[in-house]
C-alpha cells in the first residue's frame, strides 16, 4: 500500500495521481551507451586495449549505480490530489513529504525548460498560505497536475 493510500482521511478520495518522468533515467542510459561504445570500439581494434575495457567496466558500474538510484527515486515518489488535499512524498530512507489542504493552496507554479516542454516534464512549486513554498522537479505532466489542483479548488 502506498504512502498516499495509507494517509487518506475519512471520506477522502484520490482524484489525480502523477509520477516522476522517465527522464530521471537519462544518466543511466548515457553511462550504458558510453560502456557499449567503449566495448565495441575495443573489439574493433586489432589489439585489445586495457584502458578501453576499464572505461567500459566503469561505464557499466556507473550505469548500475545510477539505474538503481533512479529506480528507487522513481518508485518512492508519489504525487496526488484528493478531494481535500495535495499530497506529495519523495524518498525512501530520507523522506520529504508535503500535505496541503486544497483550500490552503495559494498557487501551483510550473517551470519547464525547452526539453521539458517537448518531453512533458517540469518542476512544480506548491505555494500555500502562510508562505509555505515547496519545489518538486522532474514531474511528468506538470501542467496537468496544476490543472487538476485548480479544477478541484472550491
Automatic annotation (TrEMBL):
InterPro entries: YdbS-like_PH (IPR005182). It comes from the Bacteria. The chain crosses the membrane at residues 21-45, 51-72. Keywords: Membrane, Transmembrane, Transmembrane helix. Residues 74-141 form the YdbS-like PH domain. This is PH domain-containing protein.
Amino acid at each position: 500500500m502506498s504512502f498516499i493510500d495509507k494517509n487518506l482521511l475519512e471520506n477522502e478520495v484520490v482524484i489525480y495521481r502523477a509520477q516522476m518522468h522517465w527522464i530521471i533515467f537519462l544518466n543511466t542510459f548515457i553511462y550504458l551507451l558510453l560502456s557499449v561504445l567503449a566495448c565495441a570500439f575495443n573489439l574493433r581494434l586489432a589489439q585489445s586495449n586495457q584502458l578501453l575495457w576499464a572505461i567500459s567496466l566503469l561505464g557499466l558500474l556507473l550505469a548500475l549505480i545510477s539505474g538503481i538510484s533512479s529506480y528507487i527515486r522513481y518508485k518512492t515518489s508519489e504525487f496526488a490530489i484528493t478531494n481535500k488535499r495535495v499530497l506529495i512524498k519523495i524518498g525512501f530512507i530520507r523522506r520529504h513529504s508535503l500535505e496541503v489542504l486544497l483550500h490552503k493552496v495559494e498557487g501551483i507554479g510550473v517551470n519547464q525548460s525547452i526539453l521539458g516542454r517537448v518531453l512533458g516534464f517540469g518542476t512544480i512549486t506548491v505555494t500555500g498560505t502562510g508562505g509555505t513554498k515547496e519545489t518538486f522537479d522532474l514531474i511528468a505532466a506538470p501542467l496537468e497536475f496544476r490543472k487538476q489542483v485548480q479544477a478541484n479548488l472550491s
